[in-house]
Amino acid sequence: MDLASTYTVFFNTNAPDDHDNSLHLRTNNGGEYNENCLPIYWENLSVHAIIKKDRWLRSSITTRKLLLNKVEGYIPPCSLVAIMGPSGAGKSTLMAALANKLPAQMDFEGSAKIGSLSVRNFENHNFGYMYQQDLFCGVLTVKEHLYFMAKLKLDRRTTDKNLKARVSAVIEELGLGQCANTRIGAGGENGKIMLSGGERKIVSFATELLTDPSFLFCDEPTTGLDSYSAQKVIKIMQRLVSDEGKTVVCIIHQPSTELLNVFNQLILVADGRIAYSGPPNKAISFFESVGYRCPDNYNSADFIMKTLSDSNKSVNSICDEFAASKHAEIVKNAISNEIYYDISSLSAFRNHLSPFWPVKLYHLTGRYLLEKVRNPTIDIHRFLQKVAIAIMVGLCYLGTVQQTQVGIQSVQGIFFMLITENFFTPMYSVMNQLPTQLPLFRREYTSGLYDASTFYIANILSFIPTLIIEPTVYTTIVYCMAGMQTDLYGYFLTVIITILVMAVSTSCGPSVPWFLHWVVKISWFELGFEALTILHWQNVTYIACSEDPDVPCLIDGSEVLDKYEFKVINFIPHIYSMVWLYIGFHLISFVCFVTRAHLNKLS
Prior knowledge:
Blueprint: H1 3-10, H2 17-21, E1 40-55, E2 58-75, E3 80-84, H3 91-98, E4 106-114, E5 117-118, E6 127-130, H4 142-153, H5 160-173, H6 197-209, E7 215-219, H7 227-242, E8 247-251, H8 257-260, E9 265-270, E10 273-278, H9 283-289, H10 300-308, H11 312-323, H12 326-336, H13 357-374, H14 377-396, H15 405-421, H16 424-446, H17 452-482, H18 488-507, H19 524-537, H20 557-563, H21 571-598
Parallel strand pairs: 3-8, 3-9, 6-7, 7-8
Antiparallel strand pairs: 1-2, 1-4, 4-5, 9-10
Helix pairs in contact: 1-12, 4-5, 6-7, 13-17, 14-17, 15-19, 16-18, 17-18, 17-21, 18-19, 18-21, 19-20, 19-21
Organism: Aphis glycines
Family: Belongs to the ABC transporter superfamily. ABCG family. Eye pigment precursor importer (TC 3.A.1.204) subfamily.
Protein name: ABC transporter domain-containing protein
């Protein structure tokens, strides 16, 4: 069977003729193939999950779990393909392998090619990959989200005018005009206008279409949608194939018979093997030929899923029958007759220049700051809590700051409260903040939008306003209510010290591994407390003594410092020490976070 007849067999579906014609291989005048019309094929493709179990003081145990077992297949150019199968059959693994999206913990054997090149030679902008779960920054509008993604996805040589035009074109193409200025939203935002599930799914399509990819892979794009929204999503995929010449591969979960027949090709995966590959309307006849008859008026997709969910023995039998069938022969002939495609000159496969690192950092930091401004609930609660605590502390020490022996204890108590509030609370807030950002980070990091260093530094920069405002407000309230020294120099340095204490506390977040926790015991609490004590008492020349002879008498600030064994010469070194602790802790956290992200161990 030659290549042309192979294509004819594959495209023998219920689709209209004009749609059918668009699926054949097209060449330009020079004989080069259209970049959107390249076949995907794979041979002897096996994927193992590498499971590594660490053991204390002993070598780790590594096991390999087989997910795909020497499968082969062929996806014709410019086609709409459905992948189906029971849970755990290997559907997502197969699609991830074809899209070069396998995680580091999976081992890839065999070959998977697009045209003449291995899928591993393709870059992220060549593929659009839609995950089952839609993850967004909910405070952004649709237009803002697409603009942000375009800034990180498109070639850095793209002018801002062309970038905005591309965003507008995608919005118009997918019918998102009415909700372009609506916030995407997230769960729990009751009473706020946000996108429906179907609209969020279409925004996911729009995000992937920004780079105009030749191939679009979708993981269960209709799951969780009502029938109307599901039909709308399917129509979008049909239009991408028929009008734009893209190849769309998607995992579908139990569609209706009518919906299933919309696809040009159906691939059934069971127990890591291919159970069927061919036109959807020929699948039932194949199952009947191997002894599994579909009851009358029964949903063919439900029947297929039920049959493939039975015992391993029956599944293996079906896979063996398919391997010996004419459908498998068509696949093998298509692969063996595959011709060489010269794609080196096609625009989609030329070098893509990613935006510069500072540009990515700028936009990511801007998104985090915008998220804080538009979703200020947590920050407002924390700020009000800080104000309330400051007022209570101020009331406790109201009128107690005097140049007396009792006043010494009051001043030291105030310093203790200033340091304590800016020591523990920021550390816990950072530890609670990072886990909420990890799901979106993992998605965007895996997609190649930015690296772990960009994420980490953007978080530090976006936290700077909080780092300055909270300790400044808290210190100012306590400072004024307690009646501390009123010169601007002393107040300014007091604020600087409390900011440094809070800064070091925020740098000791959850990224520091357990074996470096001893570093945290380097006490910036003591450094800050001593610095505040020196600042206040170093220039005090007189302290009134009590008339009670049994009460110790410290007559000036130098005696107070001697009592606490603090030295004036340590003031500047302590300030520098806190700065270096802030930098050092962040460097440790930065290295550990980037390493764990590279090893895909963030959870």
